TrEMBL record, chain A:
<dbReference type="InterPro" id="IPR000701">
    <property type="entry name" value="SuccDH_FuR_B_TM-su"/>
</dbReference>
<protein>
    <submittedName>
        <fullName>Succinate dehydrogenase, cytochrome b556 subunit</fullName>
    </submittedName>
</protein>
<keyword id="KW-1133">Transmembrane helix</keyword>
<keyword id="KW-0479">Metal-binding</keyword>
<dbReference type="GO" id="GO:0016020">
    <property type="term" value="C:membrane"/>
</dbReference>
<keyword id="KW-0408">Iron</keyword>
<feature type="transmembrane region" description="Helical">
    <location>
        <begin position="66"/>
        <end position="96"/>
    </location>
</feature>
<keyword id="KW-0812">Transmembrane</keyword>
<feature type="transmembrane region" description="Helical">
    <location>
        <begin position="116"/>
        <end position="139"/>
    </location>
</feature>
TrEMBL record, chain B:
<keyword id="KW-0408">Iron</keyword>
<keyword id="KW-0479">Metal-binding</keyword>
<feature type="transmembrane region" description="Helical">
    <location>
        <begin position="20"/>
        <end position="39"/>
    </location>
</feature>
<protein>
    <submittedName>
        <fullName>Succinate dehydrogenase</fullName>
    </submittedName>
</protein>
<keyword id="KW-1133">Transmembrane helix</keyword>
<feature type="transmembrane region" description="Helical">
    <location>
        <begin position="94"/>
        <end position="111"/>
    </location>
</feature>
<keyword id="KW-0472">Membrane</keyword>
<dbReference type="InterPro" id="IPR000701">
    <property type="entry name" value="SuccDH_FuR_B_TM-su"/>
</dbReference>
<dbReference type="InterPro" id="IPR034804">
    <property type="entry name" value="SQR/QFR_C/D"/>
</dbReference>
């Protein structure tokens, strides 16, 4: 039979020192979710320059149309590349913790949900560190 | 019995749809990142290269579906998070219709962008 624990509200962030692993997973999932949905709107806004570029046949062939110019200019900035590494970290954690949530919802590995949270964090760190050279390629 | 603690409305379908879109997004978001950062590189982006991918009907369909599911998952997540924080009444209705309007704008603008690469009308 399942047991009931009174851990208090996770929304009461002032008591963060008392948070359990599952509560941190909840906080991180919300935070990364907000970042990703914010990025989605920004991403489409930037990519929309392709609409203006669509008719510029000669500029497209010469690769100096507005879309190519904007993206190349953004990608030449170190700060943008660093932000992209941050985005990768956020996305990878959200994906891995999302897989963990799907398993929790299916009742798989409930007794190890804290360990799977730590595994999500460690794997996110490893993937992000391993991806840094690729994400910074060509910026220097 | 354990007390109920969830970010979602009891008996609602939004929970199920959030999970169904999540299962799809886990795979497609990973593919998207891998293709556009590891196979193709950030400093090699051009309209021609984006166009070459988007003229493939399978890729175009996948990206449009990706856009729609990501928008639903993101906006539904925001709505549920706000509901979870105690949003109710008129404010909740205002937030709901604002988020629906923002989603429609995002999806339409995303499809226009995909069409620009695919050589289709951008209406």
């Amino acid at each position: 039979m399942s047991q009931s624990y009174d851990r208090g509200l996770v929304e009461d962030f002032g008591r963060w020192r008392e948070f359990s692993a599952g509560m941190w997973a909840w906080v991180f999932h919300k935070f990364t979710g907000w970042v990703l949905v914010g990025y989605l709107f920004t991403h489409i806004a930037v990519l929309s320059t392709a609409i203006s570029a669509a008719g510029q046949t000669q500029a497209i062939a010469a690769e100096n149309d507005v879309y190519t110019t904007v993206i190349v200019a953004l990608e030449s900035l170190l700060v943008v590349r660093i932000l992209e590494v941050g985005l990768l970290a956020v996305a990878v954690f959200h994906i891995l913790n999302g897989c963990r949530l799907l398993l929790v919802d299916l009742g798989v590995g409930l007794e190890s949900q804290d360990k799977s949270f730590y595994a999500s964090l460690i794997l996110t760190g490893a993937i992000v560190v391993a991806s840094v050279p690729t994400f910074l390629a060509g910026v220097f | 019995m354990a007390e109920r603690y969830s970010s979602f409305e009891k008996g609602g379908r939004r929970w199920l749809w959030q999970r169904i879109t999540a299962a799809f997004l886990v795979v497609v978001l990973a593919f998207h990142f891998f293709l556009l950062h590891f196979v193709n590189h950030a400093d090699e982006v051009s309209f021609l290269a984006s166009s070459a991918r988007m003229t493939d009907l399978t890729y175009y369909s996948l990206m449009v579906l990706f856009l729609i599911t990501a928008t639903f998952h993101g906006v539904n997540g925001v709505y549920n998070a706000l509901e979870n924080q105690g949003l109710s009444g008129t404010k909740k209705r205002v937030v709901k219709y604002t988020l629906i309007a923002a989603s429609v704008v995002l999806v339409v603008q995303g499809i226009r962008t995909a069409n620009a690469w695919a050589g289709l009308p951008t209406f």
